[in-house]
Amino acid sequence: MSANSGTETTVLPEALPVIGTAGSVTISVTLVVNGGERRLDVDPRSMLVDVLRDRLGLTGTKKCCERGECGVCTVHIDGRAALACMTLAVAAEDREITTIEGLATDGDLHVLQRAFIEQDGFQCGYCTPGQIMSAIACIDGGHAESEEEIKEFMSGNICRCSAYPQIVAAIQAAAVSAEDV
User: Fold this and answer.
1) What are φ and ψ of residue 146, in 5° steps?
2) Would you list the DSSP string of 90-145?
3) pLDDT tens for residues 101-148?
4) How far is it, in rounded angstroms, from Cα 31 to Cα 151?
5) Count of CB atoms within 10 A of residue 174's CB?
6) How far is 99 from 69, CA to CA, in rounded Å?
């Protein structure tokens, strides 16, 4: 195809094929999830939260706002908290992904999972996995020195049941436990 703009002719590239319905084009990716490698064919537009839940059966990672506003879908990618609803699955290829299911070691709950239970840091429990994953990043990043610092760091995680005081208490308890180790 060419376009004529007066005196010179420009050759335009051929149009790319239109992608039809979801799933008509797939990309093969390798995801490293909770220490295990998984090879999948995914739609290049698939979000990590959907692949984790629908393709890998890891339903601990919740799905809620799909806009990165609530923190419910928080996972760790290469040790850093990330919103799975805002991360393309293909962008997570060959990176270390940790979900709430990957925290327990040999059947022993992670210190934050235990602290959430001990401090009653949940009511309905829907936001709990994302809260715990963010809380780990809060402690690991050195942001658990005070109640105010914890509240600021955790402000991207919404709890509709308003268990915030118990969540803060759980983070403080886990931070103290982490110091004792």
Assistant:
1) -150, 165
2) GGGTTSEEE-GGGS-BTTBPPHHHHHHHHTT--SS-SSHHHHHHHHHHHHHTT--S
3) 999 999 999 999 999 999 999 899 999 999 999 999 999 999 999 999
4) 32
5) 26
6) 19
Q: Distance between CA 11 and CA 167 in Å, rounded? A: 61
In terms of Cβ atoms closer than 10 Å to its own Cβ (0-12, 13-18, 19+), residue 22 is exposed
Pairing mode, strands 8-11 and 2-5: antiparallel
| Residue 79: pLDDT band with limits 50, 70, 90 | very high
* Contacts of 77 by beta carbon, 8 Å cutoff, 6+ apart: 87, 92, 95, 96, 97, 98
Q: Which residue has the tokens 């403080």?
A: 172
Joined tokens for residue 21: 């319905």
Contact 110, 132 (CB under 8 A): yes
